[in-house]
Design brief:
With about 625 residues, the protein is α+β, with helices and mostly antiparallel strands. It is about 40% helix and about 15% strand. The relative contact order is 0.10. It binds zinc ion. Zinc ion binds near residues 136, 317 and 318.
Length: about 625
């Protein structure tokens, strides 16, 4: 399989992905303290060194074999990266006395292994600063593997992040976190065996590590573009890029090294405007504008302190760097055009009356972008990004009233299958479709069979085969993972959520408003219709003086007012350490962690009694 027009003769990415290799981790496996494997790069590298397989799109095979290269690499003297030890990269910038760590991976265990690998080659340098480029967990979760919280608390090590980092880092995991985690299992292929007929990688990185996610809140906020900091003699010039690939994100120049860190806004893949696991839709218009601003600000203009101007290398927290002043500008321009083109063309076609599903079939990237490997959709795709832009501007409804009040999937499926002559007849027809290569249609009709009759053995088996073939044909790593995960669940049953979902470290940083929000989205409305409760919550650890909220529960709605006046039947004093236990409805554990109650305790029991937590094992590919 594969597009014969792809420029396989262009081997620059292989040169760049291997450039500066100092040492690899051998074996490429990271274990936790109990000996459980949390990262296994060798399980990919062992087969991806080969020539390819009929069951993997040739372009995805190429990308995966690049991404699976692991080790400590020199970017330029003084800047090093460990790549291939997690979904993301960690970067080390050497200062006067120690080393500044940028984006310490997703897990404490992988970050610790990366730090050890760095130190084994570059000496036992102390960490003198930490930078989080943005609010996604694969860029901060390993922080406790590189620095001691006590050193941060004592002011010895600054932790630098873009404004809004903490709120966004937590928010994405709090509200729809259970559903996102379940779907992330599909997207990253966590339950798939690794190999040419299973997981080959997610395009951005191979997969997510499965160790301990930690968080140390930032101590220094970057609040404006042009802001400068010098840490351990390392001067940095920042550019804020909020509402791009993440809601809180930033780029920065290291003028002394003529190196630009572009966070995750320009990588060697077309990225997501809306990730398949689900999230708020991103803004590709802003995203493109920040890349324009980065080109203008860093690659052309004079350095404000009179130092060297320009950029000789751009690096990101995924994939390999791009070297050479001209290559850097070309790379950033193409990446900018990539996001801007999808945005602008989608909006143009929206205004001609086309809908998201239609535009997704219409938008073709310009030739220069199709020739650029880094603009290919290994993680995002033009198809789902276009639908995301449509969603951002227009929402779920396409304007056609015949589609305004459609039956939900199981109801529609039952009716379709009956109209089409029953499940057996549909399966026969779908089999012929599949044999003729129309896998896409076969999947669409077999979905109706499975949703109408989930126990229809032939229907399930055929849908699994069809999804598998669709996966084998995908250039996109996350599409492949989704198809193969669906096939696996149809054959072997629901695999639930294979990865860790909520880290205690993240829950412990919940601001009170978000904690109370997290409770309110768990209230089972109908069960709470008859309740009328008023509670005062005291959060002694919120700020220097603590804070208090009055909540009411009426009509199934939990409403919180900071400092709110009025009668209550119960006052709850809730130290930070007890918040996770309360959110999980575990009152005894909460008491053990310092929860205290003053008043009618039944009130809290009534509230906890109507909390209805999410289901990490909900069905996806069947009703
Ligand atoms: Zn990332």
């Amino acid at each position: 399989m594969g597009d014969p027009g792809l420029p396989f003769e262009d081997r620059q990415d292989f040169a760049d992905a291997e450039r500066g290799l100092i040492a690899a981790l051998d074996p490429g496996v990271v274990e936790d303290d109990h000996g459980a494997v949390v990262w296994d790069n060798d399980s990919y590298a062992s087969f991806l060194r080969g020539d390819g397989a009929d069951s993997v799109h040739r372009s995805l095979w190429r990308q995966s074999s690049l991404v699976t290269r692991q080790g400590l690499f020199e970017v330029v003297p003084g800047i090093y990266q460990v790549r291939g030890l997690d979904l993301s990269n960690v970067t080390f910038v050497e200062g006067d006395t120690g080393v500044v760590v940028i984006d310490p991976l997703l897990s404490v265990e992988t970050a610790r292994a990366a730090m050890k690998l760095y130190r084994s080659q570059r000496g036992d340098r102390a960490v003198t600063g930490v930078i989080y480029t943005h609010s996604h967990a694969d860029h901060f979760g390993g922080v406790k593997g590189v620095v001691d919280e006590a050193d941060v608390d004592a002011g010895r090590v600054p932790v630098i992040a873009p404004q809004g980092f903490l709120e966004h880092a937590i928010a994405e995991n709090v509200y729809a976190g259970t559903a996102m985690a379940r779907r992330a299992g599909y997207m990253y292929g966590a339950a798939l065996p690794r190999g040419p007929r299973g997981g080959v990688g997610a395009g951005l990185g191979q997969t997510t590590s499965t160790g301990t996610v930690s968080l140390i809140p930032p101590t220094v906020d970057i609040t404006r573009t042009g802001q400068e900091l010098t840490v351990d003699g390392v001067r940095m010039v920042f550019q804020l890029a909020p509402n791009s690939e993440a809601p809180a994100e930033m780029h920065f120049l290291l003028p002394a090294r003529r190196a630009l860190c572009i966070a995750e806004n320009a990588t060697h893949t077309l990225h997501n405007v809306l990730t398949l696991r689900g999230a708020l839709v991103r803004d590709p218009r802003s995203w493109a504008r920040y890349l324009t601003e980065a080109i203008e600000m860093f690659t052309a203009g004079a350095d404000s302190a009179g130092g060297a101007s320009g950029v000789d290398v751009v690096f990101a927290s995924h994939h390999w760097p791009t070297w050479g002043a001209d290559n850097v500008v070309e790379f950033l321009r193409l990446q900018r055009d990539l996001y801007a083109y999808q945005h602008d063309q989608t909006v143009r076609l929206i205004n001609k009356g086309w809908t998201g599903a239609e535009i997704a079939e219409m938008v073709e990237l310009p030739p220069a972008l199709r020739r650029a490997w880094h603009a290919h959709g290994y993680y995002g795709s033009v198809s789902h990004n276009v639908k995301a832009v449509y969603q951002r501007y227009m929402g779920w409804y396409d304007g056609n009233p015949a589609r305004l009040w459609q039956h939900p999937p199981a109801e529609a499926a039952r009716r379709y299958v009956e109209f089409m002559g029953g499940a057996d007849a549909v399966v026969d027809k779908a089999r012929r479709c599949g044999d003729e290569g129309d896998l896409r249609w076969a999947a669409q009709v077999l979905d109706h069979v499975v949703f109408a009759e989930p126990d229809h053995k032939e229907g399930r088996a055929l849908l699994a085969d069809v999804l598998e073939q669709l996966g084998f044909g995908c250039e996109n790593g996350t599409w492949r993972n989704c198809y193969l995960s669906g096939a696996q669940e149809l054959r072997d049953g629901n695999f639930g959520t294979p990865t860790v979902t909520s880290a205690p470290d993240l829950l412990a940083q919940l601001p009170p408003e978000m904690f109370l929000d997290a409770l309110s989205v768990q209230v089972n409305g109908p069960e709470a219709w008859h309740l009328d409760l008023a509670i005062r919550w005291v959060f002694p650890d919120d700020g220097p003086d603590g804070s208090s909220f009055r909540t009411t529960l009426t009509n199934g709605v939990l409403t919180a007012v900071r400092g709110g006046a009025g009668d209550v039947s119960l006052t709850i004093t809730l130290p930070r350490a007890a918040m996770a236990a309360v959110a999980a409805g575990r009152l005894d554990a909460a008491r053990g962690a310092g929860l205290s109650l003053d008043g009618d305790e039944r009130t809290l029991r009534q509230l906890l009694g109507v909390l209805d937590p999410g289901d990490p094992g909900f069905n996806i590919v069947e009703p």
